[in-house]
């Protein structure tokens, strides 16, 4: 089983330019942990001091904000895409 | 000459030279335009404004405009209407409506933000501009984009009001309808801004765009003869406008143009999409996203970009946030039209209806000065109220027919002049 973590341009200077990461993670939390283990410089940008996903980082599983799913506990299946969006704009 | 404005991270404070970017590279928090207020206070005087036309450009020095900028259109300068009826009906003395339903060129406050965003788009060399929109913004981008010769592409939820789609299409803009709600559209636009060299006014140009909203606040203060009100009631979608009115008031106080005052900020949302109001009322430290389901489509943003800041402002200033249901929105639109002669879109119904609720709750006091922000025109959302006004029966062009109809409607004999 493999899922893909899509890395936005703004994050890529912390990922040696990598635009995505293939992962065998089974939940969103595992996927994020794998991302920051692989690229430790990204760690403090993804989670705050309490270990929560930072206020302005939005995480999507395929088309849906994970807060409408099971949050970080959301289960992943083969082919899923996890997308990180820094500071959602609009309005 | 060194520019008096620059970008600054709202969280870590890192400063950036002017660039089309909306978030901090260090902490990924939002960027905002900041100014060298010492320099501004030396170069711009309140007295000079009286020689300028009454539109948003009279505050040009307080906006992030490139050197030598020449406005293409007379935007803003909308009326502040003192209530003649609703105030006494609701039991408050000094009630005002800031009426951006008649903002030019496209009848919503979004004309203001697009005006500053396109100045930035030109400066940064973009040929294509666009936006993610619940309708009003698309209208404004399409109109001003056409006037200024930009190639324009707007992204909207597929189920938008027909009038708002038409009012974008007529200007020749490319319209991309997205199967999904505004939040889906918005996320897509974030990815598009990441990939294309486009100036998306509320994405990569957002810091400059949002500053245009300050002019709504400057005008309120000036129209109150350079005094700040006690309360402001503001509709909330992304939650940016309420913060920019507060910023405008702070800047005016800082420049010494008004006496400083603790203005209470009140936020208005529809019950069917009330993430910010919900966070205020429940005392949450984080705004939780919602799936919008309301006729107030222009406020139907379930994941508001500035929700965090709006919630904090409301709480810190001693204000409050409320929401009303769709039937209450329709009632409030009719009430505002039939008492004050202002035909507002659904968002205006939300704001008026919430104001009544806040007065009823005692959060707004009878002797205080309260400004209610009406941000869009009712002609754009006629579908929301059409069912309440079915076509009336046609009568022959005869006096007897008219008198018969009138007596039927009045349910009493028609009184005519004694010599008739």
Could you explain the architecture of this structure?
- The complex is a heterodimer of chains A (91) and B (420).
- Chain A is 16% helix and 23% strand.
- By secondary structure, chain A is an alpha+beta fold.
- A five-stranded mixed β-sheet of chain A has the order 2-1-5-3-4, with helices on one face.
- Chain A starts with a strand and ends in a 5-residue tail after the last strand.
- The model of chain A has no long low-confidence stretch (mean pLDDT 93).
- Chain B is an alpha/beta fold.
- Chain B contains 14 helices and 13 strands.
- The termini of chain B are far apart.
Give me a quick take on this structure:
The complex is a heterodimer of chains A (91) and B (420). Chain A has helices spanning 28-38, 43-46; strands at residues 3-6, 20-23, 57-61, 64-65, 81-86.
Give the arrangement of secondary structure elements.
The complex is a heterodimer of chains A (91) and B (420).
Chain A: E1 3-6, E2 20-23, H1 28-38, H2 43-46, E3 57-61, E4 64-65, E5 81-86
Parallel strand pairs in A: 1-5
Antiparallel strand pairs in A: 1-2, 3-4, 3-5
Chain B: E1 5-9, E2 15-16, E3 31-35, H1 37-43, E4 80-82, H2 86-90, E5 94-99, H3 110-123, E6 128-132, H4 136-147, E7 151-157, H5 162-169, E8 174-178, H6 182-195, E9 199-200, H7 206-211, H8 214-223, E10 231-235, H9 240-254, E11 264-270, H10 275-282, H11 307-316, E12 321-324, H12 326-340, H13 346-360, E13 369-374, H14 399-410
Parallel strand pairs in B: 5-13, 6-7, 6-9, 7-8, 10-11, 10-13, 11-12
Antiparallel strand pairs in B: 1-2, 1-3, 4-5
Helix pairs in contact in B: 3-4, 4-5, 8-9, 9-11, 10-11, 12-13
């Amino acid at each position: 089983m493999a899922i893909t973590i899509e890395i936005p341009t703004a994050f890529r200077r912390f990922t040696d330019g990598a635009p995505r990461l293939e992962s065998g993670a089974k939940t969103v939390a595992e996927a994020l942990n794998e991302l920051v283990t692989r690229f430790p410089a990204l760690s403090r940008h993804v989670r705050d001091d309490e270990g929560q996903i930072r206020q302005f980082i939005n995480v999507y599983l395929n088309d849906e904000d994970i807060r409408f799913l099971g949050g970080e506990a959301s289960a992943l299946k083969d082919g899923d895409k996890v997308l990180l969006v820094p500071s959602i704009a609009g309005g | 000459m060194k520019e008096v404005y620059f970008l600054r991270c709202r969280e870590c404070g890192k400063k950036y030279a002017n660039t089309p970017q909306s978030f901090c590279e260090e902490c990924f928090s939002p960027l905002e335009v900041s100014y060298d207020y010492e320099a501004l206070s030396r170069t711009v005087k309140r007295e000079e404004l009286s020689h300028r036309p009454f539109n948003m450009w009279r505050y040009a020095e307080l906006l992030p405009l490139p050197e030598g900028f020449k406005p293409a259109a007379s935007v803003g300068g909308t009326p502040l209407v003192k209530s003649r009826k609703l105030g006494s009906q609701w039991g408050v003395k000094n009630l005002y409506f800031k009426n951006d339903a008649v903002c030019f060129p496209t009848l919503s406050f979004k004309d203001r933000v697009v005006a500053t965003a396109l100045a930035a788009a030109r400066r940064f060399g973009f040929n294509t501009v666009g936006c993610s929109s619940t309708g009003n913004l698309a209208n404004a981008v399409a109109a001003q984009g056409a006037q200024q010769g930009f190639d324009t592409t707007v992204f909207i939820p597929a189920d938008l009001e027909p009038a708002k789609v038409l009012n974008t299409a007529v200007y020749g803009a490319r319209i991309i309808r997205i199967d999904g709600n505004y939040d889906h559209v918005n996320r897509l636009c974030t990815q598009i801004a990441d990939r294309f060299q486009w100036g998306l006014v509320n994405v990569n140009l957002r810091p400059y765009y949002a500053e245009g909203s300050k002019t709504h606040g400057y005008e309120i203060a000036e129209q109150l003869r350079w005094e700040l009100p006690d309360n402001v009631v503001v509709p909330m979608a992304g939650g940016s406008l309420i913060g920019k009115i507060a910023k405008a008031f702070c800047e005016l106080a800082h420049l010494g143009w008004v006496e400083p005052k603790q203005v209470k900020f009140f936020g208005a949302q529809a019950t069917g999409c009330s993430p910010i109001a919900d966070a205020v009322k429940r005392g949450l430290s984080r705004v939780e996203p919602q799936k919008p389901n309301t006729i107030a489509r222009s406020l139907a943003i379930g994941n508001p970009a500035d929700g965090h800041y709006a919630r904090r402002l409301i709480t810190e200033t001693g204000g409050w946030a409320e929401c009303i249901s769709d039937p209450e929105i329709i009632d409030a639109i009719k009430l505002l039209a039939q008492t004050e002669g202002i035909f507002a879109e659904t968002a205006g119904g939300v704001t008026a209806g919430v104001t009544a609720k806040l007065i009823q709750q005692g959060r707004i006091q009878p002797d205080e000065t309260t400004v209610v922000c009406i941000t869009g025109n009712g002609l754009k959302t006629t579908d929301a109220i059409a069912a309440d006004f079915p076509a009336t029966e046609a009568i022959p062009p005869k006096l007897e027919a008219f008198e018969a109809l009138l007596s039927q409607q009045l349910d009493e004999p028609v009184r005519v002049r004694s010599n008739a």
